Automatic annotation (TrEMBL):
SMART domains: AAA. Residues 2-225 form the ABC transporter domain. GO terms for molecular function: ATP binding. This is ATP-binding cassette domain-containing protein. Keywords: ATP-binding, Nucleotide-binding.
Length: 225
């Protein structure tokens, strides 16, 4: 569980949000929504320890997100997915996927089996483990980033506009895998401006007028107008 207490963020004299208190529970998906410039990505980054707050605390399973604890949280609990995919472009598919297996004691053969299984799960059976990342399409690269997360098995996933650079078909495919393939094993937090993404989430986190509110997504599963 993520617990936020008294969270405030300012840039110079500009208040982004103030005195935010909320809880994000295990196994649920959350979409951070709001107009451009309201602080969606800033809030996501603070939760994931990529930015610091002006005041307040973020706790993960009763452990503060702090400089001291971040290496362990990133190793054991956190997973990230970004609009630019976050892959090592000049390296192979296998090299990138093995990053997700770094903390698992598997033989080389077991690693290969795990990588091939996750590629099949994500519809990437045409992708070879020896293939270079730059030869893949944008949709394939984002699904590969998801495959790496599935191998790592994080309990909290932070996604910043994960479909922002994809066409409609690939965006829908990535969203479906992101929000369903992890089951109830992970808390998923997505910063997005896209209805095709947030309509699949359990809760909506609205960032507006320096405030952050969380409501159940009563429109979950409905197609956007």
């Amino acid at each position: 569980m993520i617990e936020v207490k008294g969270l405030t963020k300012k840039f110079a004299q500009r208040m982004i949000f103030e005195n935010v208190n909320c809880q994000l529970v295990q196994g649920k998906s959350y979409a951070i929504i709001g107009k451009s410039g309201t602080g969606k990505t800033t809030f996501l980054n603070i939760l994931g320890g990529l930015e610091t707050a002006t005041a307040g605390t973020v706790m993960v399973d009763d452990q503060p997100v702090s400089t001291k604890n971040l290496p362990q949280l990133r190793r054991d609990k956190f997973g990230f997915i970004f609009q630019n995919f976050g892959l090592v472009d000049k390296e192979t598919v296998a090299y990138n996927l093995k990053i997700g297996l770094a903390n698992q004691r598997l033989s080389r053969q077991e690693q290969t089996i795990a990588m091939k299984e996750v590629l099949q799960q994500l519809g990437l059976t045409n992708v070879d483990l020896k293939q270079r990342i730059f030869t893949l399409s944008g949709g394939e690269q984002q699904r590969l980033a998801l495959a790496r997360l599935l191998l790592k098995k994080p309990t909290i996933i932070f996604a910043d506009e994960p479909t922002g650079s994809l066409d409609a078909d690939n965006a829908d495919e990535v969203t479906r895998h992101l929000l369903h393939d992890f089951g109830d094993q992970a808390t998923i937090i997505v910063a997005t401006h896209t209805a095709e993404v947030w309509r699949h989430c359990d809760y909506l986190i609205r960032v507006e007028n320096c405030r952050i509110t969380i409501t159940e997504n009563i429109a979950k599963g409905e197609k956007p107008a």
